[in-house]
Amino acid sequence: MGMNQLLIVDNLVASYRKKEILKGISLHAERGEIVALIGPNGAGKSTLLKTIMGILHPSAGKIQFEGSDITDLHPHERARLGIGYLKQGGSIFPSLTVAENLSLASSSPNGNSNPERSPAPDNIFSLFPELAQIEPMRAGALSGGQQQMLSLAMVTLRQPKFLLLDEPSAGLAPKLVNRVIEKIKGLNESLSITILLVEQNIRRALSIANRAYAMKEGVISKEHLNPQSLSEQESFETILQT
């Protein structure tokens, strides 16, 4: 494992409801990168994130994180190592206020406690100023964009080194999509969080990514080493082609 490689996925095979979804996936993420994972619905992108997080267990292959084999670790053990996961649709407590959601996230940071790596609860608003004015509001009453910002803030408070983001802009209006994507870029730049981003807004994902993998039918069909150059110039067919 190279000095800069944070995550290595090697020939991963995984099934869901007895159907093989991942068919020998290999990829890596280097420290400080944003890696975009793109492809059509049903390609296996979400399944891959769940398998990296330990929610699903592979039938073959290996996952390494910081040089250690984590293939058989439970999700909470991976979280303690610094792997964060934000599922599609976010993850908030709707009946609690924004302040209470943030407090819960900061008081149980999956076993991590590294103030140099992540913000303390009282200064999370420097990263997410849009949440400061809505602290007393119940999370379930927020707009979709506000809920997604809250979800991102909560997972940030859990102090990840490596963040798995599954469709963070799903269902949002175009203006809000841009805000969420820029926020993800900001977290990467300000906190040096390595990010594996699954995103249907392909051009926006490519615009902030250092590298990209295209998935199709459970396999990696292509690796893009300079994805930002593709975001405006290439057709989706070229981007996703085998």
Characterise this structure.
- This protein is α/β, with parallel strands linked by helices and 242 residues long.
- It has a single domain (5-240), classed as P-loop containing nucleotide triphosphate hydrolases (Rossmann fold).
- The chain has helices at residues 45-53, 75-81, 98-107, 124-127, 144-157, 174-191, 202-208, 230-233, 236-240, and strands spanning 5-16, 19-30, 34-38, 60-65, 68-69, 83-86, 162-166, 194-198, 211-216, 219-224.
- Strands 6-7-8-3-9-10 form a six-stranded mixed sheet, sandwiched between helices. The chain has a four-stranded antiparallel sheet with strand order 2-1-4-5, covered by helices on one side.
- Helix 6 links the parallel strand 7 and strand 8.
- Helix 3 runs parallel beside helix 5 (144-157) and helix 5 packs parallel to helix 6.
- The longest helix has 18 residues, at 174-191.
- The protein starts with a strand and ends with a helix.
CATH topology: Rossmann fold
Number of domains: 1
The poorly predicted ranges are: 113-117
Number of helices: 9
CATH superfamily: P-loop containing nucleotide triphosphate hydrolases
H/E element order: EEEHEEHEHHHEHEHEEHH
Counting helices, strands and paired strands, the structural category is alpha/beta
Query: Given the C-alpha coordinates, what overall shape results?
Result: globular
Beta-strand percentage? 25-35%
Order of neighbouring strands in the sheet with most strands: 6-7-8-3-9-10
Major sheet attributes: 6 strands, mixed
- CATH architecture classification: 3-Layer(aba) Sandwich
Helical coverage, percent range: 25-40%
Number of strands: 10
Give the radius of gyration: 17 Å
Indicate the mean pLDDT: 89
